[in-house]
Amino acid sequence: METVRITDVAPRDGLQNEPDPIPTAAKIRMVAHLVASGVAEVEVSSFVPARWIPQLADAADVFDGLRSLERGETVFSALVPNEKGLAKALAVNAAGDRRMIDKLAVFTAASDTFARRNTNATIPETIERFRPILATARREGLPVRGYVSCVIACPFEGPIAPERVADVCGLLLDLGVDELDLGDTIGAGTPETLTPLLEKLYQRLGAGVMRQATLHLHDTHGRAVDCVRLALEAGLRSFDGAAGGLGGCPYASTAEKRAPGNIATQTLVRTIEDAGYATHVDITELDQAAATVSR
Fold first, then answer.
1. Any idea which architecture 5-294 has in CATH?
2. pLDDT over threshold 90, residue 247
């Protein structure tokens, strides 16, 4: 039975917009449950300035608290927005007797407005910002994931043309990223909108793009499961989820209602396994991971 790779992003993307501080110890316990669940990768935190995302200001402490955890083949990754964030991540790896961060992630968007709002830079400027990060990552032997937000629609610009997404993905691949992460940031995706995107990526970037791409879905409108099924049929074998459905783009929320978050990893596992693929993930441990911080 073919195995589908799952990354749980709850400790980073799931928690970054939470308004109330979550204790570092709770985050460490959460990651421990995620490792026990058997997911292939855990995105543990982000090395962004504390003034940007106060909730993740303890990134180094979280990694330090995980040093004694036996994690087998589980990959630990971290988002780095710039060279300063990279330096902090490398300092974590230099401390102690074992490397804690196995993969780095960088972040851009298919919407220039969204890129400016989130990174204070245009899309081309973000790409240039990544060059020294990629060069250092290669020297350190660290693979790099390239996030592309708003691959279906942007809260400011509306629907995004698949050609624009393919352009950005091409720039990232030319730069040398090892993995593309396609983010449906506001949960606008449906099989009808995802199909032309995947077709355009295949057309422009070749069949290999399906092996390099991860799909990152938000379940704002309850269509994420449909998109998972469609993506599996199209050949994608890597997905992001967040235990308990934590997270959610603040731009997709309203004053009256907070938008649903990432697709729950539990739902993702059930959908993939119902489609006839293996995940090797224990849903009970995912439930425990979500409960640890939901309290």
1. Alpha-Beta Barrel (3.20)
2. no
